[in-house]
Design a protein that fits this description.
single chain, 209 residues, mainly alpha, Arc Repressor Mutant, subunit A, Tetracycline Repressor, domain 2, 12 helices, globular
Length: 209
């Protein structure tokens, strides 16, 4: 009985490992080629498995994409949504938490911004249906805090600035590395420093007239 249970656990672990390998390969290929130009064969080759095995886990490219995209959106927005809707956290603290959390997330998933941004551009309506930003912002305590602090600044302008400060360095990372402005270690150190600098800059913007 114990032997059979152990075998089941090993098979489950192997299944999870293969499924994650496929999803990681899909993220890589979808980011490079976009959804339309990607073939399931491309993903199978990237994952180092045969096409039949990929089809066993994911019946179609669309289903695989939907799962990968949903997980990516959850990663990217799962951090900010609890913060923007939390009325108990002060605005200055929220800025610090958002900057730190986003930079940590993207350092762990460097292709994530490009993947999500490419799909926002290619399928804006589909993205809106998955992430109803209009409804989220309407019920956001962050928006109310911003209006109270700076009624002369549109809250979305503020959010765009914060997200750009967090995300753009990673989108432009290949340029800085190619130009030898940073090496990998220096870039990582610079991003770590941004967790301290971004709140300083944003608070200065909120004070500026």
């Amino acid at each position: 009985m114990a032997k059979a249970r152990k075998q089941q656990e090993e098979e489950l672990t192997e299944d999870l490992s293969t499924e994650e390998k496929i999803k990681e390969a899909a993220r890589t290929v979808f980011t490079k080629k976009g959804y339309a130009a990607t073939r399931t064969r491309d993903i199978a080759e990237e994952a180092g498995i045969n096409l039949a095995l990929l089809n066993y886990y994911f019946r179609s490219k669309e289903k695989l994409f939907q799962q990968v995209m949903s997980e990516n959106i959850q990663k990217l927005f799962g951090i900010i949504l609890p913060l923007v809707t939390d009325a108990t956290t002060k605005l200055d603290v929220k800025i610090e938490l958002i900057a730190s959390a986003y930079i940590d997330l993207i350092r762990q998933n460097p292709d994530l911004p490009l993947f999500v941004l490419s799909e926002i551009r290619n399928n804006p309506v589909q993205f809106k249906n998955r992430v109803p930003l209009d409804k989220i912002l309407e019920n956001s305590s962050l928006i109310e805090q911003l209006k109270e602090r700076r009624p002369d600044i549109h809250p979305v302008q503020f959010l765009l600035n914060v997200l750009a400060l967090c995300v753009f360095p990673f989108v432009s990372r290949p340029i800085w590395l190619a130009a030898k402005v940073f090496d990998e270690k220096e870039f990582a150190a610079a991003m770590e420093d941004r967790k301290r600098l971004i709140p300083v800059w944003v608070k200065a913007m909120l004070k500026a007239k």
